[in-house]
């Protein structure tokens, strides 16, 4: 029999062996594992047991509800079915790599596989800190690249067609704001009248809301400090919002006691939050009626940014409008728009230099004549 002494003072049996030589080999291996931190205290925990405990008791108290729901879906849909029965300390890099490859074969989005990697990396980092494993094997696995495919967007002409189509529709103000400001759907649905100054012509983005089955409406502050932002409202948007407010006051009067006062700009007939999936269905119907391509509601945000960049608006201004935490995020998403802008800028520079050259030549000719 071979034993090692743990940091707690307790002895852990390595095993029983037929010869002293076998016991010594096993003992050396166990001592090495102990030094590396790979000797587990207690039973050999499975990946499933560890990840479920990690999510519920380590991560959940410190993350947003929406992030918790996302992590839980990734764990139970993609990671635990494949790796859950494996003992935690016997998890190998090759098993992780095969999982990623299988998910790519299934057609899972690169961004989701990247999220799987980040989640596992964080979970195993915590496992190392707790001496559950000796090292984070995710350090040995190449992180999947989260590619950002070029999103379909509306051209300026198509955006105008959509705005014309929604005239007098119940979603007119919402879609006009989405196109003109690049606000996310969750930000629009959480917008309150107290966030808007119709006289001075600006609004404040402060929060976001989404509906999750089993949880209901989840309203939170924006993810980052930059997400909280002030946006200027142009006169056509202000007039549309005023008309929308007047119609809402009529609806409130008709609802009577059924009205739930939440000060929401966009709400149901009873004043409650709109469900985002309902808005998307209405939006897709409007696109079809306008003869426009079926693009995601979020792609209106991409359309706004792309149109502004094509008009020569500084990318820093676009970043602030969209509420990105750093300009690199804006560049990463919309960098494909910049080459065309670069060519146009150089053409402008060429025309400017040509004009200056002509002016200098004319000046020299004038000097010669005066002489």
TrEMBL record:
Q: Which Pfam families does the protein's record reference?
A: Phage_int_SAM_3, Phage_integrase
Q: Which top-rank group of organisms is this from?
A: Bacteria
Q: Which UniProt keywords apply?
A: DNA integration, DNA recombination, DNA-binding
Outline the extent of the Core-binding (CB) domain: 45-128
Q: Name one GO molecular function term.
A: DNA binding
User: PROSITE patterns per the record?
Assistant: CB, TYR_RECOMBINASE
Q: Which residues form the signal peptide?
A: none
On whether Glycoprotein is a keyword of this UniProt record, the answer is: no
Q: Where is the Tyr recombinase domain?
A: 149-347
Q: Which GO terms describe its biological process?
A: DNA integration; DNA recombination
What's the protein called, per UniProt?
Integrase
Q: Which organism is it from?
A: Thermogemmatispora tikiterensis
């Amino acid at each position: 029999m071979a034993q090692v002494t743990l940091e707690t003072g307790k002895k852990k049996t390595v095993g029983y062996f037929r010869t002293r030589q076998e016991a010594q080999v096993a003992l050396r291996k166990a001592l090495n594992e102990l030094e590396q931190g790979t000797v587990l205290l207690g039973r050999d925990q499975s990946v499933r047991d560890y990840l479920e405990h990690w999510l519920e008791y380590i991560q959940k108290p410190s993350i947003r509800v929406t992030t918790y729901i996302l992590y839980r879906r990734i764990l139970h849909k993609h990671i635990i079915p494949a790796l859950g029965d494996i003992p935690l300390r016997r998890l190998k890099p090759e098993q992780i790599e095969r999982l990623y490859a299988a998910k790519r074969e299934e057609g899972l989005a690169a961004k989701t596989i990247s999220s799987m990697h980040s989640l596992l990396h964080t979970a195993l980092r915590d496992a190392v800190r707790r001496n559950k494993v000796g090292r984070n094997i995710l350090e040995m696995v190449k992180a999947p690249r989260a590619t950002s495919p070029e999103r379909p967007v509306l051209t300026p002409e198509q955006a105008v067609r959509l705005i014309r189509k929604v005239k007098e529709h119940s979603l007119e103000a919402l879609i006009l704001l989405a196109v003109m400001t690049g606000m996310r759907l969750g930000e629009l649905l959480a917008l309150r009248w107290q966030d808007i100054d119709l006289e001075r012509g600006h609004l404040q983005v402060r929060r976001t809301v989404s509906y999750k089955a089993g949880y209901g409406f989840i309203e939170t502050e924006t993810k980052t400090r930059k997400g909280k932002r002030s946006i200027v409202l142009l006169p056509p948007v202000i007039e549309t919002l005023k008309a929308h407010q007047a119609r809402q006051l009529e609806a409130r009067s008709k609802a009577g006691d059924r009205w739930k006062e939440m000060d929401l700009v966009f709400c149901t007939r009873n004043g409650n939050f709109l469900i985002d999936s309902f808005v998307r269905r209405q939006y897709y119907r409007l696109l079809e009626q306008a003869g426009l391509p079926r693009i995601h509601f979020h792609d209106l945000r991409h359309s706004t940014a792309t149109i502004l960049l094509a008009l020569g608006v500084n990318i820093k201004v676009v970043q602030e409008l969209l509420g990105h935490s750093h300009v690199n995020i804006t560049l990463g998403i919309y960098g494909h728009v910049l080459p065309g802008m670069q060519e146009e800028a150089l053409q402008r520079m060429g025309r400017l230099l040509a004009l200056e050259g002509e002016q200098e030549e004319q000046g020299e000719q004038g000097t010669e004549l005066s002489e």
